[in-house]
Amino acid sequence: KESENCDVLLIEGVTVSFQELNEDARVPEDENEPNLIEKINNIVRENPNRQMTFNYYISNIERILNIIKTNPRTVVLDAYYSYVLKHATGYQSYYYQLDDKDYGLDKNYEVEFEKLLQDEGSYFWQLDTLAIEHFDRLKENGIYIHSNATPLGDFDPKYAPFVKRFEDHNIEFKLVGCSGHAYPFDLIEIIDLIKPKLLIPIHSHHPERLYNKSGDVLLPEKKQTI
Q: DSSP secondary structure string, 9-40?
């Protein structure tokens, strides 16, 4: 509402890279953050005697805070992710550390990595870049939850081998995500509500799919100064 009739609206168009504009291109009713958190927590509750690991996108601060506050197990993050969370919110999470950097974290919250590798019931811990180097030491019959972490999806050549590695090691791979990008129909609704004088769609393979009933559209070219 505050942006209504703005001179210029720059808007991302990730989903119109892959979907046409139609009534079906709305966010599914059950695809939202509260449902996602509940799905993750249910997986943990239903598997009390299995090693549980996960990964998430580092800038998704609200998601990891909600997981920490509601998960039935103690959530443990990689030290760098814990550092980012603390500096963004002031919250000190439990963490493990595999590098020798000083992140200024409270040592009382540190969990030994070896303890995590042996755990099957107390911790829900992050399997990030450094930890995955120890992949062969994970327990078989464990569960790994991939929550919009990298590699992000099938479009990334690294994704299929990443998933297969879990299958080969007899670890159940669960994809539990929720996109931060607006769906095509919602993008148009946002544009229609704001009514910009000039629309500039960015970050999209098909920016031309976004239109502006209230004014002009500029499709920027590489290296163009606006």
A: EEEE-SGGGTS-SSTT-S--TT-SHHHHHHHH
Asked if 82 and 166 count as a contact pair (C-beta separation under 8 A), the reply is no
Q: Residues 26-45: pLDDT tens digits?
A: 666 667 899 999 999 999 99
**Model pLDDT for residues 117-142, shown as the tens digit of each residue:** 999 999 999 999 889 999 999 999 99
| Location of structure tokens 């829900």 | 124
Give the least confident one: 81-90, 94-103, 153-162, 196-205.
153-162
Q: Say yes or no: 137 and 111 in one domain.
A: yes
Range of the structural domain that residue 197 is part of: 8-27+180-217
Residue percentage of the chain with pLDDT more than 70: 95
pTM recorded for the entire structure = 0.82
Sign of CA dihedral 43, 49, 55, 58: positive
How many CB atoms lie under 10 A from the CB of residue 222?
Answer: 4
129: left (phi over 0), alpha (psi -120 to 50) or beta: alpha
Enclosing H/E stretch for 54: strand 52-56
Q: Is residue 203 part of a domain?
A: yes
Same domain for 95 and 149, yes or no, is: yes
